[in-house]
UniProtKB/TrEMBL annotation:
It comes from the Eukaryota. This is Uncharacterized protein. Residues 1-25 form the signal peptide. GO terms for molecular function: phosphoric ester hydrolase activity. Keywords: Hydrolase, Signal. It comes from Glycine max. The keyword Signal applies. Gene3D superfamilies: Alkaline Phosphatase, subunit A. Belongs to the bacterial phospholipase C family. Pfam families: Phosphoesterase (PF04185). Coiled coil: none annotated. InterPro entries: Alkaline_phosphatase_core_sf, Phosphoesterase. The keyword Transcription does not apply.
């Protein structure tokens, strides 16, 4: 009997060590890299990967259809196909457009996701089929490879049912401060809310914004302060060098090229920009991170600001979504920020992620929590143990994803340096980029380049 206490003490000590070791293993990330692309829905970009890459993905089968008129749904309809290509003109994605896409033209209060064709027809007869097309995996080969190798989130929504800038504001501040559209005067003045950048700075942690032509993060007024001036870097001059030297800050933001510049095409995926250039950007960032000494401590997040008017079959969440800060949208809708936007593609990359991971629902903190753009500041707060409060009620509610890197006891050593048999169809430019990776680098691709175009 006298030896039971020492045995119990030893057992408790062993349990403590196991719990402590598990906690240590679950927080391996010291650098979070975020790339937010533009205006594509999940089904449009990744939906067909369910069929050929991973059946666990909540994607499409081809049976998804939208009526030409939601007032007469039994009449003609258009079904989802796999022949997406260059898109012009740009589909509708204003607050009013998304309202019709999600609810139809009736007065329903439950999302039906059956108004995409009808809304597109109101803009142009040519758009009705365009919004019901998705890319074959071979047409977005970088994403296909990353989905196979790492994690895809198939229930990640834009933060509001509206356009680019309000959603981008949510990514780093968990609110758009009442905006549901692009208000030029307010964008010029800057939005006043606190950001995750401020929280990091308060905790003595660094961040960096690597931009290509304009940094949209400057729409946050706080980031215009003199103390943050050295946080902004020209992507082409600094990103690869900082990655190579192991100097990427804890939060690293990559801003894509939002418009053509001196003959160099935009690479943000916003229609009418060709997604081939977006694929090249993602490839370039991945390669730089994969070769970096920081690779084993890095999480790379790729998402899209909003769906851009393209069809998605998953109903947008609309029950008990918290208003971030008490603001409401302008007349005539007076939106209360009480429902989310359309589902968008989200991929996460890290050597700590199991191959072929599919993450669907959030695991709290609330029973109805969802993954949306506010999940990014919420998770950064958690991963870096920031002492600052949540930014708004929205990031306090949003699902967090730190568990995506919590299943492995050590980083993988089999993460690819390259994507095999790369084929990217550039529909507008009538070219085919083909190649096989050699010597472990995507840069060694043999490329057939379109006339007057430099992709590499």
């Amino acid at each position: 009997m006298g030896s039971s206490k020492p045995k119990s003490s030893i057992l408790m000590f062993v349990v403590f060590l196991c719990v402590f070791a598990t906690a240590q293993r679950q927080q391996p990330i010291k650098t979070v890299v975020v790339l937010v692309m533009e205006n594509r829905s999940f089904d449009h970009m990744l939906g067909w990967m369910k069929e050929s890459i991973n059946t666990l993905i909540n994607g499409v089968t081809g049976d998804e259809c939208n009526p030409v008129s939601t007032k007469s749904p039994r009449k003609d309809s258009i079904c989802f196909t796999d022949d997406a290509e260059f898109v012009d003109p740009d589909p509708g994605h204003s607050f009013e457009d998304v309202l019709q896409q999600v609810f139809g033209s009736g007065s329903g209060s439950i999302p039906s996701m059956n108004g995409f064709v009808e809304q597109a027809l109101s803009m142009s007869p040519n758009l009705s089929e365009t919004v019901m097309k998705g890319f074959k995996p071979d047409s977005v080969p970088i994403y296909a490879a990353l989905v196979k190798e790492f994690a895809v989130f198939d229930r990640w929504f834009s933060s509001i049912p509206g356009p680019t800038q309000p959603n981008r504001l949510f990514v780093y501040s968990a609110t758009s401060h009442g905006s549901t559209s692009h208000i030029k005067r307010q964008l010029a003045k800057g939005y006043p809310q606190k950001t995750i950048f401020d929280s990091l700075h308060e905790n003595g942690l660094d961040f960096g914004i690597y931009f290509q032509n304009i940094p949209t993060t400057l729409f946050y007024r706080n980031l215009r302060k003199l103390k943050y001036i050295w946080k902004f870097h020209q992507y082409d001059l600094k990103f690869k060098r900082d990655a190579r030297d192991g100097k990427l800050p804890p939060l690293t933001v990559i801003e894509p090229r939002y418009f053509d510049l001196k003959g160099i095409p935009a690479n943000d995926d916003h229609p009418s920009h060709d997604v081939a250039h977006g694929q090249m950007l993602v490839k370039e960032v991945y390669e730089a991170l994969r070769a970096s000494p920081q690779w084993n401590e890095t999480l790379f997040i790729i998402t899209y600001d909003e769906h851009g008017g393209f069809f998605d079959h998953v109903k947008t969440p609309f029950v008990n979504i918290p208003n971030p800060d008490g603001n409401t949208g302008p007349a005539p809708y007076f939106f209360k920020f009480d429902r989310l936007g359309v589902r968008v593609p989200t991929i996460m990359v890290s050597p700590w992620i199991k191959k072929g991971t599919v993450i669907s629902g959030a695991k709290g903190p609330a029973e109805n929590s969802e993954f949306e753009h506010s999940s990014i500041p919420a998770t950064i707060k958690k991963m870096f143990n920031l002492s600052a409060n949540f930014l708004t009620h929205r990031d306090a509610w949003a699902g967090t994803f730190e568990h995506v890197v919590g299943d492995l006891s050590s980083p993988r050593t089999d993460c690819p340096d390259f994507v095999r048999f790369l084929k990217v169809k550039c529909s507008r430019m009538e070219c085919l980029i083909e190649g096989r990776a050699r010597k472990g680098s995507l840069s060694s691709l043999k490329v057939s380049v379109c006339k007057n175009l430099r992709i590499f």
